[in-house]
């Protein structure tokens, strides 16, 4: 016999429905979630900048003939 037993549709229908609260929980939980997002936002911005700027420059340099002083656009050829 298996440890996990299957429930029938009738058993599931007889179970009391859980009430869903709107608003995402208590006021304290919402404030903590908002504080967590706001406190992590500067770190996310720094990571995106440190990764995005070099990736953008690499794409730009690959689309130009760049000799260190001037560049000529050659496009994705």
Helix and strand arrangement:
Blueprint: H1 9-14, H2 27-62, E1 64-66, E2 71-73
Antiparallel strand pairs: 1-2
Question: Would you mind describing this structure in some detail?
Answer:
This protein is mainly α and 77 residues long. It has one domain. Helix content is 55%, strand content 8%. The protein is built from 2 helices and 2 strands. It has a two-stranded antiparallel sheet with strand order 1-2. A hairpin with a 4-residue loop joins strand 1 and strand 2 (71-73). The termini are far apart.
The Cα radius of gyration reads: 27 Å
The whole-number mean of residue pLDDT values reads 82
First-residue to last-residue Cα separation: 65 Å
Order of helices and strands: HHEE
Number of strands: 2
How many helix segments? 2
Largest sheet: 2 strands, antiparallel
Broad structural category: mainly alpha
Quickly describe the structure.
The chain has 77 residues and is mainly alpha-helical.
Key words describing this protein structure:
77 residues, mainly alpha, two-stranded antiparallel ribbon, 55% helix, 8% strand
């Amino acid at each position: 016999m298996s440890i996990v037993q299957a429930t029938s549709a009738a058993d599931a229908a007889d179970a009391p429905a859980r009430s869903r609260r709107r608003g995402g929980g208590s006021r304290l939980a919402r404030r903590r979630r908002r504080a967590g997002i706001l406190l992590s936002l500067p770190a996310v911005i720094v990571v995106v900048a440190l990764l995005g700027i070099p990736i953008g420059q690499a794409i730009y340099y690959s689309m130009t003939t760049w000799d260190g002083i001037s560049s000529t656009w050659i496009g994705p050829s």
